[in-house]
Please model this.
Amino acid sequence: MSYLSYFAAGAAVAAILVAPEVALAQNPDRRAAELLRKMTLDEKIGQLTQIGGLALVPDPLTPEQRVHNAQAGSILWLSDPVSVNRLQHVAVDQTRLHIPLLFGLDVIHGFKTVFPIPIAMAASWDPALVERAQAVAAKESRAAGINWTFAPMVDIARDPRWGRLIEGAGEDPYLGSAIAAAQVRGLQGAELGGPDSVLACAKHFAGYGAAEAGRDYEAAYIPDELLWNVYFPPFKAALDAGVGTFMSAYMDLNDVPATGNAFLLTDVLRNDWGFKGFVVSDAFAVRDLVTHGFASDPRDAAYRAATAGVNMDMASRTYLDNLAGLVKSGQIPEAAIDKMVLPILATKFRMGLFEHPYADESRMAAVLGAPEHMRLARVAAQRSAVLLRNEGHLLPLTKDAAKSIAVIGPLADSEFDLLGAWQAMGVKSTAVGLPQGIRDVAPGVRVEFAQGVEIHKTYPSMFDGLMGGPPTVPWPEERAAGEFQKAVDLAKRSDIVILTLGELALMSGELATQSTLDFPGKQQQLMEAIVATGKPVVLVLVTGRPLDIRWAVAHVPAILHVWHPGSEAGHAIADLLFGDAEPGGKLPITWPRQVGQAPIYYAHNLTHQPENQSRRAWNEESTPLFPFGYGLSYTTFRFSDLQVKPGEVTVTIENTGNRAGDEVAQLYIHQKSGSISRPVRELKGFRRVSLAPHEKETVRFPLGSQELTYWSSALRKFVEDATQIDIWVGDDSNAALHADFTVAHSTSAYPAGKPDNSMQSPPRPQ
Ligand code: NOJ
Model:
């Protein structure tokens, strides 16, 4: 049940039990309507305005003045309870109607306790873990005064050049939907308004991840079939999980900017899906409707965004400066402004802000970075790591045998980069480096560290300063040569090398497109020189996006991908290296061989001469380096006994090795014929299981009309009623265990679909 219907149901029960005036007071929609009646037009427009809390949003007035003038309904980017309370006091004590403010910040993967970046969390294939991590992020945010986070980002991303790939759950709508819903449940809790929950925001609606060539903010062209079958489902799943707000995207979708796009914001979101919360624009996106060559001037931009369905203007003050004029000239009726304001006020009532507007400043010290939060961050980093290669069972290392370990590489001890992009602003987080992590986990071994090489960004961006990345001055040539040699010498005198290579945190995230997937800097040379020493090498990849690791796959026996793992990086990596934790993560993205393959994803359609699919390019395989869903374990698993029953698929997984481990059972389908071509494979179920040596488990996947339904422009929501469906179950998207069945009109378990206006979200995985 969504929280909206939850509240509706709750209110209905309350109405029976308590006096009518009390029941009325508890009903957020009624309270919002009552309050609205008392508001002037200017006060209403104030509620539609989000003001920047930091100097980096230029404004002739201070945030205090804006709030005092009732010109702000929300503040962007303030993240400490003292400043929050100061402004909240102005709103509550000094304005006529005492309407409290919403404080919004990008808490994307943790606040003080930093979890692995979102794409890594998705690699855990563990929605329950994702939910718990976001519940911790919500609790810490709330203790710092933040009551609204701009998460989850649920944009599907199929191009590794796009830096924001790290903020979502990858390329697949089914996995993306499960992770989106889990994040909403974690952030908002069972009941919005609890002391530890924050308002969530599904962003960026919609299609932002389809930026051409991965160039951030670039236009997206997405045909209807892809919109409904691939890009929309995670948003619908967030909505079904009760998400309170949506954020409109920056880019043009099919030539109409998403922030002025009535198809997206009104036809789909409000009319088709029945969204009752409010939409905030992305930062400055209302004003930027002019930049797009869509609106003629800021007044037209305000008109176009407001009439398309954007309730709140983030940071640009275009609504503040223009909406009153548009109402006075009769272009926008005041009733339309009322409709924009109501869900904002109702959300504030629903969150209990009128009763509890202030942050409890005394909670901060005990809540932020609490030991149990850090323990969860360690588990999350363990469960999100993906073992890509392990020739000759080099891993796990034994604590006795590996007497001296060389930890080498520019990211192994770089605190900021181990935390990843979108570290919450305004609070200093810490990360355990890998040398320290190994010392703590395996105190008997000797650990020495050498950085070897440096990494620099070629072009700085505004986020470097905003998020506080360490400024680096390149080493002079002589020093660079010396550091390189030191690393090689260290490798030579050690028993084993843990080589930690990848990308800086801020090489992914917003405004962080890469035109190449090569290791930045001299890391490739360092890797080749270290491998040439003949010592056993474990490559630990610290990166948001997949990199070109063809050489490594041919020459380095063990490769563990840990993404940007967060606060407990060093401990979690060491746990995995020594087998105190079992790697069981799976890739939520297809891993290309090289940049020329981008965009690449598993759920493509079969076309002419599929048998030649692997030879489409004359100089490279067309298959990826690693398929979607791929990841190894220290043990082995066998899938057997695949059975298709009415409405259900079952399969048995057995741990065939001698150590405990995790496997993710993945169910894929393919429709053999129908009214449109469907992808060669589509994920329709998954489950991560932990099995003791030789233990077996039977996993059940529901497979009914919900999983078989797709969008066809001619028919809208649709299930073919006479077609054959292939089924595969296994450990990645190349799974071999196969069955098929016929969807027949007469088969009651697979009812034929009727045209219908609503998308169904996938079920919660068990
Ligand atoms: C721009 C980003 O696109 C969006 O994701 C973020 O939430 C806002 N800025 C606010 O920081």
